[in-house]
Amino acid sequence: MTGWNAGEIADQSGRTAVVTGANSGIGFVTARELARRGAAVVLACRDATRGKAAEERVRAAAPGADVRFAPLDLADLSSVRAFAEGLPGDRLDLLINNAGVMALPQRRTVDGFEMQFGTNHLGHFALTGLLLPRLREAGHGARVVTVASGLHVLGTVDPRDLNMEHRYRRWIAYGRSKSANLLFTHELARRLVAEGSRVVAAAAHPGYAATNLQTAGVRMEGREVAEHVVQLGTRLFAQSPENGALPTLYAATAADVRQDDYFGPRLEFRSGGAPTRRAVRAPWTRNDRASAGLWAASERLTGVTYAWP
């Protein structure tokens, strides 16, 4: 794994991938590199203008690639269902749950969930459940890769207050949503093993990568000075989106990926480079009772019940 780079991605011809949040940052790089290796890629993005622009950029980087934009708003469960129903074909090889929001002021999704929990976890939980039959159809080599964060250590999910209705704190909410990503991966992996499925559930994190996540919250509040400070810190310390995407690409394509694996860069910051290790994760993200409890709550909240053979 040491020194691994995108040039080592195996041929993806004949495979189909869905990448959420593929219009920018590590999502765009992930989609572009998969397309360069021959995968048919669906760019699942909320903003149509940015999504279509990203489609053209991928085509320019990978001439002849089978790539297209499709609208998906993870903060609206009706949009999640419409995306799943409108996705053509019977099989899907890779689902990259990449899109997310970070440290926003208190907001609610269309369905009334706390925005970070609702977007980062519940939207992807529903999407994965709706697309799982197609991933099963693909069989060997099919994967669900969910992008978490090293900041999941800020806190685990509180089953008594999933939507942080009491004392909202934006960074704790973000950490909990990323812990939810890892608990989801853990429980999905357990259930796939129990059914004897060849679909693999894994996770990754980019370290501190230069994306638009860092400035979204302060921009929403009109805090210009804070926005400039964040932008300066990102320029000084963050690694590139190309490096930040490597753990995701490794989890999606490398031959040695196992159920419930979690990959990250060697270091969180600019010098991190290629993913050289399986990442450290908080022990609560492998707690069977917590993952099962979150799963049950997620099915109840989203109305998406996974069908198991």
Question: Keyphrases for this structure?
Answer:
309 residues; alpha/beta; Rossmann fold; 8-stranded mixed sheet; 10 helices; 44% helix; SDR_fam; oxidoreductase
Structure summarized in a few sentences:
By secondary structure, the protein is an alpha/beta fold. Helices cover 44% and strands 11% of the residues.
How would you portray this structure in words?
The protein has 309 residues and is α/β, with parallel strands linked by helices. The chain has one domain (6-298): 3-Layer(aba) Sandwich (Rossmann fold), CATH 3.40.50. Helix content is 44%, strand content 11%. It is built from ten helices and eight strands. The chain has helices spanning 25-36, 48-61, 77-86, 115-138, 170-195, 213-220, 224-237, 241-244, 246-253, 288-302, and strands at 16-20, 40-45, 67-71, 94-97, 143-147, 200-204, 262-264, 277-278. It has an eight-stranded mixed sheet, sandwiched between helices. Helix 4 links the parallel strand 4 and strand 5. Helix 6 packs antiparallel against helix 7. The longest helix has 26 residues, at 170-195. The radius of gyration is 18 Å and the shape is globular.
Major sheet characteristics: 8 strands, mixed
Structural class: alpha/beta
Write down how many β-strands occur, each being a DSSP E stretch of 2 or more residues: 8
CATH fold naming = Rossmann fold
CATH class: Alpha Beta
CATH superfamily: NAD(P)-binding Rossmann-like Domain
Amount of beta strand: 5-15%
Distance from first to last alpha carbon: 35 Å
Major sheet strand order: 3-2-1-4-5-6-7-8
Described by the principal axes of the CA atoms, the overall outline is globular
* Total domain modules: 1
CATH architecture: 3-Layer(aba) Sandwich
Family: Belongs to the short-chain dehydrogenases/reductases (SDR) family.
Keywords: Oxidoreductase
Protein name: Oxidoreductase
GO molecular function: oxidoreductase activity
